[in-house]
């Protein structure tokens, strides 16, 4: 259960890291949208492993096949099914996992929940599951683009190295200009060095991805359970390794007084009602106010490390384990397109819901 | 839209701050559960305004009526409808709101979304909406209690005053022993002083609520979109004024390396597989691991302040506004039962879903 | 579970025949719709018992109260909660039901499912549950009316007495011109006589309600599971006492060949593509084609009869039972507004869904 | 939208008749269920075209591939994705469809809804869409079998030829003993002759499929919208070409009085509460009563015929059309596994929902 996300623009993902493949069904996509395989593959390439020296050396082309829902380069309005075959599996890398639980992985909880587990990899908890999300996100982004909305994510912080980035002006080109996806070029250098150093130690690190949506019209979102920030939180907190979520001022905002924190209104030169500050992060009462929507997501250090750790076998016997497979010392660079995808899917769903209920 | 939450244990809330009343329909509650009106009212009383000198002086008894779903003190398995009438309304306090947008409130976004707004209060964004959640939470807590699960929330921080609380041992009695609901008695005193001082200034402050679930069996949650942390994040990020969410190590965990962060396994004296640390916050891969589930929620300073602020009218004319109504200088003490309620509803829903799919 | 219906225009009903009351929450209603209590009450009055000599003599005013979602005569876009209090209960009429199962009622299945039952009436299986549906239907009808859609139901057949009615021209006035709601005045007389005669015998009869939607734009509905006829079938088959559903040619259409059954296309004087016949019932491939949508619903004879019947007690002891309460000898006249309501709710939901996905 | 069905046992289908393939994702399947590809393929073979002289001569092996969710012959509890590739397409058979609407097909309504259409076949309205349903049904049947439930469908009537079949004793072997799937051998002969004769004329015929579920425990279903008969109606009315649905006495039951129609209770030799008759069709108040659940579905004559028919082109020009492709003169034999699949999916979903809410 729980493999479907969204209400009108709705995605369902499937697939384990090992087996026939992974993919997604996108239901509710507006018809007649022009979208090419290349646009989808572009995002998958940003997500795939082996793309640079700081990601896992596993080589997976992650070439996608669109099984349905497209005709002559346009969406039909019917389900778009996208499949990526699994390749380059090395089950021997995982044989120990059949009997030994990896610390801070889902092996033990899978056994507790299902009483069965495909130990030849991470199962549904593998980062490969996010392939379907990223593919769906590419389509959501295209819909949003036509509505004037642009979504840009980037690495804000690696461990304690924090980049200086202006979310109001940052561009995709800046993000993609280096392999760590931090638009602050100087900081990016230091981040890359740190990741390489940690990787050589057989250890791992985490950090924070920030993501901005610009051009979102006022009025998206709902006042109660489906607040925009609530759906965004659910979307990104369902990504592997995420441990925290903020919108706008976030946790730091709790250190201000109301008079310091409130976003005062003014009318701009175009006669639009705007806010002087944006501590709300573009959302007030769960509904977008046309200011930039700004979120941050905390990703823990990768659980798979080559250092030896204390653990237990499936029958409870204590033992030690050191990962042998090929893994990312830091998921952050590859998490950027994932966060963007979830933000795009949430906003696209709310765009259609708003049109459905309120007719605009 | 978006007024329903949960999949098997499912709640739908209704009602504005002004009008006939507010309430909830709880669908999917197991039958034959013993629950009294007093148990529901107990939680509503923890939430209601006017309960102490540091909450709004509005006097609202918030007496609930159960319209359906109970018979001779037990649940029928059919929808439980609970209604709380609105009282003590002073529309004159709000007349200015018909034409002037309150900064960091939802007035402007409601107009953008719906093109209409009940200006006699906060509408669905009023904290009164949470009455339905807290009532439903009382029932969810009772179901969880029978499954051995206990949920305790408390104020962890007010502005920069942080209490020392052990989530593994904290009790409801400790939480309820002071009006700010911080179990660290010394810190609580300082918090109360600070809230009173800020209130006298016509300003407001925020902080952090922490909430723990103890005794959760391993196996609750889902591996992908409906990860336990994702549903918890959605639940609490849909509460008014929340700006951030963390589980386990949260944002601070991003400063550790993997070898520092991972929760190593061991087998305890009862032969149970446990983790040495709990940076995962009781959830691995979206599924509970039987350790305590620990979350934190950031609440911004109350938007309503008596200080004069710059704003605009509905037609865009710039003006100033100072709130005249009776409001909380700090929502945190009353947010505690709200966070507990959302956590209880999420865990109860997953308990039933797990039983449905996996039969245990 | 299962007390919610609809996807964008979504209703949740609550309440038993005995207890505080029954009602509905309507979520997803478009904002700024003008709707008065009188318009809702009009439909409830068509549904209520005691409205004529051929319905149950129970007197229930069924006066509705709108608790939320309306402001100055217009919808707010937020949940509309409607409550009708229970009155005129005579629990003594039902005391035997605590221990004896009524044949073809839900008493026994409730006990099997929930292990508990409010024996003071029919619980959720009471026709009172449909109050919420009819109230929601009044609002759905108003939305549809603004889109040019009109829904008219009527009694087509009572037992073997079948009225001659033209669904393309029948009017509400014709339907309401007699107490049995059959627009064929001559047949209506005979139907009324038959119902009275059967009622005097302490027995009951059933029949068929037909319902037409005129002016439905082409394009509503979905090609697969949410076909218009599938959602209509679910809607009306969830009404108490319904045993069968047809759209267009229905079961009789299975006696024709394809060349006899197919609806050939032509272009009318306005240049619109139309069909010569309408055996499809206004829906092709699950999607409306702008022809009139025509459905029929079979309602069994009322289960409650004053004749003595063989039955068992809750502990399985065989006994006999004859109903003592006041009941309808025929539900058909009161079923007409129920069928209309469900058809309106389904079409309204699909209207909003179509606008959401396809933008028109 | 609308490509997902079910609440806990939930399927999502994808794919057009032309393109990469068709398939299904099954979410919520209980873990550790033993299921083989052969068991799934068995049902697909009952559905596939070209299986006998009375079905379309199109040869489609419809070989399925399980992409995920199975491991070493058992379900993992995660999504089961099943893909069947498209083959043997003859787009030239359909070229006329690009510009000419086939009577009683969905071509025109697709254009009205989406403004775009894959004219190389029936798109989502193709019977190929049901491959995913039948594959999912095979799994649902296996789950039900372990709960003691058996589902058997058969052709009850072809045009006016009605077979004599006892739903309480009919076996799968009897159904599969002839190519028309009517267990009344004599009638089956006449049905086959009639279908061949009609096929030679380039025409088509319809009929009625009856389907029984035996061994269903009492207590499945819901009292209001998700009544068992409502979900069954939706399930089968979403199949291509279905025009009507009945449960138990159906439309014929409306000709009886209440005293004739009611199912009196008695206690059988095992002490079980049973009903003397089964006009309720195994469901009372939306909930199963442990008697056999019996439904009937009307299927119209196949819309595709080789006889010349009046129609219009996409720009409204009147013309004539005679189908050239290879089609079934009667869908009934292949509809049997489709009806069984939908009934199995509905019952399986309610089995899990009942366990979730009521714990049994």
UniProtKB/TrEMBL annotation, chains A, B, C, D:
Reduced FMN (FMNH(2)). One of its GO terms (cellular component) is cytosol. Its EC number is 4.2.3.5. Keywords: Amino-acid biosynthesis, Aromatic amino acid biosynthesis, FAD, Flavoprotein, FMN, Lyase, NADP. Pathway: Metabolic intermediate biosynthesis; chorismate biosynthesis; chorismate from D-erythrose 4-phosphate and phosphoenolpyruvate: step 7/7. GO terms for molecular function: chorismate synthase activity; FMN binding. InterPro entries: Chorismate_synth, Chorismate_synth_AroC_sf, Chorismate_synthase_CS. NADP(+) binds at residues 47, 53. It catalyses: 5-O-(1-carboxyvinyl)-3-phosphoshikimate = chorismate + phosphate. Coiled coil: none annotated. GO terms for biological process: amino acid biosynthetic process; aromatic amino acid family biosynthetic process; chorismate biosynthetic process. Its cofactor is FMNH2. FMN binds at residues 124-126, 285, 300-304, 326. Pfam families: Chorismate_synt. It comes from the Bacteria. This reaction introduces a second double bond into the aromatic ring system. Homotetramer. Belongs to the chorismate synthase family. This is Chorismate synthase.
């Amino acid at each position: 259960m729980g493999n479907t996300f969204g209400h009108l623009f709705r995605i369902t993902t499937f697939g384990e890291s090992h087996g026939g493949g992974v993919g997604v069904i996108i239901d509710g996509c507006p018809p007649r949208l022009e979208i090419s395989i290349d646009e989808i593959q572009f995002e998958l390439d940003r997500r795939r492993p082996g793309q640079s020296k700081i990601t896992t050396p596993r080589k997976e082309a992650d070439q996608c096949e669109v099984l349905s829902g497209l005709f002559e380069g346009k969406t039909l309005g019917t389900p778009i099914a996208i499949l990526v075959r699994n390749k380059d599996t090395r089950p021997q890398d995982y044989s120990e996992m059949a009997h030994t639980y990896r610390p801070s992985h889902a092996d033990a909880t899978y056994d507790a929940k299902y009483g069965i587990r495909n130990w030849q990899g991470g199962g549904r908890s593998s980062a490969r599951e996010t392939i379907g999300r990223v593919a769906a996100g590419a389509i959501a982004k295209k819909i949003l683009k036509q509505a004037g909305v642009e979504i840009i994510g980037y690495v804000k912080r690696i461990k304690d190295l924090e980049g200086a980035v202006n979310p109001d002006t940052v561009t995709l080109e800046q993000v993609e200009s280096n392999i760590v996806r931090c638009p602050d070029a100087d900081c990016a250098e230091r981040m890359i060095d740190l990741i390489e150093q940690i990787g050589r130690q057989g250890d791992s690190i985490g950090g924070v991805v920030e993501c901005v949506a610009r051009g979102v019209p006022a009025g998206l979102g709902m006042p109660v359970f489906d607040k925009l920030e609530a759906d965004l939180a659910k979307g990104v907190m369902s990504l592997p390794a995420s441990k925290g979520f903020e919108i706008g001022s976030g946790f730091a905002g709790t250190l201000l007084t109301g008079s310091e924190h409130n976003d005062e209104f003014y009318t701009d030169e175009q006669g639009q009602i705007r806010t002087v500050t944006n501590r709300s992060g573009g959302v007030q009462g769960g509904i977008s106010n046309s200011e930039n929507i700004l979120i941050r997501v905390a990703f823990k250090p990768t659980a798979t490390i080559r250092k030896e750790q204390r653990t237990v076998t499936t029958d409870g016997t204590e033992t030690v384990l050191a990962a042998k497979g090929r893994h990312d010392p830091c998921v952050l660079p590859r998490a950027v397109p994932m966060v963007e995808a979830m933000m795009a899917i949430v906003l696209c769903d709310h765009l259609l819901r708003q049109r459905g209920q309120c007719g605009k």
